[in-house]
């Protein structure tokens, strides 16, 4: 197949072991599944800085015996400097130095390679040395709010701490919002994710706008007089390192939110080197921008082929295999989610799950959509073996679950749908807002008459009741409906009709 980096060959028997679980519960180990995610974590070194900056040592994620020991579980901290942490200098929330170091380590291992809101090297130095250049109280509170959410998969008590750190960060932001700094920009990115995961979607949307506004004022992107590569080279080396990292992280974050929340896209990317590549040319991967306007089929095909040509340039560490770090799998998730969005407007809903009609030599929108959907299904099976699960996986779960509901005649639709529901269930503790994703998906299944009311109730009963039940899920759940009406396509709008729909269906079942 052409473009094997974008479309690696899939084992057609990959779900045989898991299919057996539909009648008797899912197997935890999936020992019969040849494509189950390899639990052996192999560590690779990624240098996220421009080549001109790599003379600095250590790197953002240094390949040292200490890091290897941390990954293997023999050392509690990601970096030995965390043993010197004085967390009381940065926050008034009660937390021990040891627990703060552990949860920060968890973040640096799992989500930082994908989010990268700040230079880990410079942040860690200033955090432990009590310097204020690349660290701040606001950034630390935001980071701990985020990190405690991740760590809740191992220790549920940290979820309450996450709420406390979030409230502290929100208070600090009201004081610091007039100061345009790199730590403030990084803190905003982290805080916006935490607030959304805790069920305050409308507030998170305001923070997305704050990120965009600050980035424009700092001339990082989305302005015509953005910071140029020539100006960038005049900055001190450390400032270059921190600025490039913050600019691209904020840009990527807003592009992601454009997909998840259907917010306005970023039209002008940074002109700075992409961290780790040394590339100083402008980015040209603004795939999601066209979705807000009507475009021709020719334009969609052109963007698709440009995207595929770009994947041919990927380095070996970014190629999917039987075992990859989470950031590699998440990258491929976004790649195929974007491809689905490119062609979704040109395909009728009932034809969006027609993979049985796929032919390699026919590049119809339906065939391309089906092929990328197959890749997403494979990724969803891979993620079941990851722990902890990152909230970024929501996009793959949502796209697969909603797509299989388009074709409930397919014998495997329920298998994939339940895999997605089960994966969401594993994430409730860390991301309470995802309970509304499940409720929304069950609502869509009832509308399609794909599930009985009893089945839907049984699955919904597994959603835990928490003191602050989230109810402001602003993210888009139905990517087809959003082309007509944004508000009705949101998870909160769909989820809120679950109870009424169940009562109506039960009335029809009993008296119809």
TrEMBL record:
This is Uncharacterized protein.
């Amino acid at each position: 197949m052409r473009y094997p980096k974008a479309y690696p060959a899939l084992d057609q028997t990959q779900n045989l072991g898991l299919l057996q679980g539909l009648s008797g519960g899912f197997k935890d180990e999936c020992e019969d599944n040849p494509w189950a995610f390899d639990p052996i974590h192999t560590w690779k070194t990624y240098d996220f800085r421009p080549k001109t900056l790599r003379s600095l040592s250590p790197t953002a994620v240094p390949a040292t015996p200490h890091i290897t020991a941390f990954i293997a579980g023999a050392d509690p901290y990601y970096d030995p400097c965390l043993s010197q942490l004085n967390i009381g200098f940065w926050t008034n929330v009660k937390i021990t130095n040891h627990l703060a170091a552990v949860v920060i380590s968890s973040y640096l291992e799992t989500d930082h390679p994908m989010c990268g809101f700040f230079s880990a090297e410079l942040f860690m130095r200033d955090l432990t040395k009590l310097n204020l250049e690349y660290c701040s109280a606001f950034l630390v509170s935001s980071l701990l709010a985020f990190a405690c959410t991740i760590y809740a998969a191992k220790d549920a008590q940290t979820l309450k701490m996450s709420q406390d750190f979030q409230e502290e960060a929100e208070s600090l932001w009201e004081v610091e919002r007039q100061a345009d700094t790199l730590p403030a920009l990084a803190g905003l990115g982290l805080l916006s994710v935490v607030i959304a995961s805790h069920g305050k979607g409308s507030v998170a949307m305001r923070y997305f706008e704050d990120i965009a506004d600050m980035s424009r004022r700092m001339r990082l992107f989305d302005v015509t007089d953005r910071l140029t590569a020539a100006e960038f080279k005049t900055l001190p080396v450390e400032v270059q390192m921190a600025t490039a990292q913050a600019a691209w992280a904020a840009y990527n974050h807003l592009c992601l939110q454009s997909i998840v929340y259907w917010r306005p896209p970023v039209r002008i990317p940074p002109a700075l080197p992409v961290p780790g590549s040394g590339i100083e040319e402008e980015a040209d991967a603004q795939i999601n921008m066209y979705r807000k306007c009507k475009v021709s089929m020719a334009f969609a095909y052109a963007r698709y082929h440009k995207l595929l040509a770009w994947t041919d340039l990927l380095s070996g560490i970014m190629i999917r295999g039987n075992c990859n770090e989470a950031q590699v799998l998440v990258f491929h998730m976004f790649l195929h989610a974007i491809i689905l969005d490119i062609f979704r407007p040109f395909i009728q809903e009932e034809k969006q799950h027609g993979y049985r009609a796929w032919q390699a030599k026919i590049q119809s929108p339906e065939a391309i959509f089906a092929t990328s959907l197959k890749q997403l299904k494979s990724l969803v099976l891979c993620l079941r073996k990851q722990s902890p699960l990152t909230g970024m996986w929501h996009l793959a779960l949502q796209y697969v679950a909603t797509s299989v509901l388009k074709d409930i005649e397919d014998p495997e639709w329920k298998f994939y749908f339940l895999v997605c529901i089960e994966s969401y269930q594993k994430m409730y503790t860390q991301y309470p807002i995802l309970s509304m994703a499940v409720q929304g998906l069950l609502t869509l299944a009832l509308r399609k008459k794909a599930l009985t009311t009893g089945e839907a109730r049984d699955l919904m009963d597994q959603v835990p009741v928490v003191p602050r039940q989230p109810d402001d899920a602003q993210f888009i759940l139905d990517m087809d409906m959003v082309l007509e009406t944004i508000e009705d396509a949101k998870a909160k709008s769909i989820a809120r009709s679950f109870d009424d729909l169940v009562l109506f269906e039960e009335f029809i079942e009993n008296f119809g």
